[in-house]
Amino acid sequence: MFAVLAVRKVTQDNRGKRTAGVDGKTAKQGWQRIELANNLEVDGKALPLRRVEIPKPNGKLRPLGIPVIKDRAKQELVKGSIQPIYFALAEPNVYGFRPARSIHDVIEAIFNSIVNKPKYVLEADLTGFFNNIVPKAMTSK
To answer: Can you give the pTM of this predicted structure?
Structure first.
């Protein structure tokens, strides 16, 4: 059942459903999707990524790795299995990268926490943070 949902998500719902990986395969036909779902096995082995570069707004290029359709379905299967557990254990005030949570939810939570008593609100922009870490500074003595 979960395999069928994972295959549907990557072959029908996803914007990149027609984008092939290094094997050149997609699953456009119903029989191809059924075959993919029946043979879907999380075995830890993945094919290499197809590397393409997409333009960024600043004119530079960003490398993008495209997995084969089978590997995308495996990733979705694992995500669908782990995500409910994570959400049950996650802090209620965590909003980043969570479905059904938006910037509007964050604004509402902040407003509700400061409406009666003023508090400090800190904002940070982490754009490019990991690109600028000096490796020597991260090593311990």
So the answer is: 0.69
